[in-house]
Amino acid sequence: MEEKRKVPCGIIGSGNIGTDLLEKLKRSKVLEPTVMIGIDPQSDGLQRAKQKGLTTIDNGIEGFKAQPDLADILFDATSAKAHIQNNKVLQELGKTVIDLTPAAIGPYVVPVINIDDHIQESNVNMVTCGGQSTVPIVSALNKVADVAYAEIVSTISSKSAGPGTRQNIDEFTQTTAKALEEVGGADKGKVIIILNPAEPPIMMRNTIHVMIKKYNEEIYEQIRTTVTNMVEQVQQYVPGYTLSAEPYFNEDRVTIFLQVTGLGDYLPEYAGNLDIMTSAAVRVGEEFGQRNDR
To answer: What is this enzyme's catalytic activity, as reactions (predicted)?
Structure first.
């Protein structure tokens, strides 16, 4: 039987996220990374991509316009501001775009929740690391107990927050809060991010506080079960995604504690915040590659 052709894909951005994404895409059975697009010819990302046989472009999205047949699916790992122009060009070229910035031009996608609803979109947004970590849990809780309010505190190592992350802090909190509501189902969402400078660097930790509209011992037990099931689903593409403690209940308030340990592909294991973004993006890209005729 003839082996099915992999779908050619490209990465925009040769920084930490783009380079880690490259390592994961090289393992994909559905996608074939063919081009990396950056603006710094000396960046480690472009150097690695060239060594792995990819076409490299060092003058940004304008360079890709001259070679649009290199990729059908493009992963944008730049910044919210840069993504606006990148997406404009890519839409004109008829490409599918998976946005890892907080620009949120396209609908929010969290693979375990709503990929089926957006499989025909030309641009989808991967929310944020905090969103990919916490929205699945809030969605699971909402189906059992109706979430009136969801507040997350996302703590990451300062070392894992590069220039792009720091420039996008406002977009991070706004985008994640909206995703808690629009995808997670909470009536109201709030987000706090903490960059922890501790040495040795800490793993990514997320604390989820929710207020539920109905509660009793039976609902508490349902919450325990649904949270465990959701964690197992996310672990299918983010193996280091774990509960760090049992759910805590105080009448209408529930607290969930999560930790995300990275795979250590390009980034250290403590950079789970970046790892969950690239892992989720690959999962979404594979869904697009498998389901859409190109």
So the answer is: acetaldehyde + NAD(+) + CoA = acetyl-CoA + NADH + H(+)
